[in-house]
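Reviewers of the previous submission asked for a worked example of the structure-prediction workflow described in the proposal, so we include one complete record here. The input consisted solely of the amino acid sequence. No template or homolog information was supplied to the procedure at any stage.
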Amino acid sequence: MIEVRHISKSFKGLQVLKDISATFEKGQTNLIIGQSGSGKTVLMKCAVGLYSVDHGQVIYDDRIFSDMSEHERMNIRKEVGMLFQGGALFDSKTVEENVMFPLSMFTKQSFEEKLERVNFCLKRVNLENVNKLYPSELSGGMIKRVAIARAISVNPKYLFCDEPNSGLDPHTAGMIDNLISEITKEYKMTTIINTHDMNSVLEIGEKVIFISEGNLCWTGDKHQALNSDNEKLNNFIFANELTRRLKK
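From that input alone, the workflow returned the following structure tokens.
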């Protein structure tokens, strides 16, 4: 479980997060949603430690991450998997080398042990016999699956996903959503997903946190989201649904 308690964050005098408190549950897909510029990306980056908070606390299973030294934080970062927008694979490395990268950074395993783990993770995301391919030889969906394999290679307790469906067609996006949901339950991870895709909310939104103008405006699940009387949430949901229909 990850908690944020009364966190605030400003940049050059502009307050982006305003006294936000939320809990992200273990074994569930926790989605942060909101319009562009709402603060959802900043909230995720504060939770993972890419940004320091101005006020408040970030807590990983009763460990106050935001109060730790950089050396202390490194021990928690070994327990974190990251799925970046676009996949963020190293273009000059093969699939095998990309997935092996966190293992080389955070473990002392032999090459044979790391290779065994790489192959296991690639098989888990339904990718086999692609070890020696480069990212330029992969489709968008394959890149995201390799990125997921890399993120789970160290068997993390916590998984952060930044816009995992960005740039994907609806069918592939749904496949990635389902894969993230499956591995979350399989490994009992605390998974936090930053997204503006309402299809993701309706498919895998076990816990949904809606951010608007730096404020936490609503919390619930995907079923409650469709029946909420929160005006800002409804405007966001139905604006996204209208946009989706117009694109068809």
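Residues 242-248 have pLDDT under 50 and may be disordered. We consider this example representative of the routine output the project will generate in years two and three.
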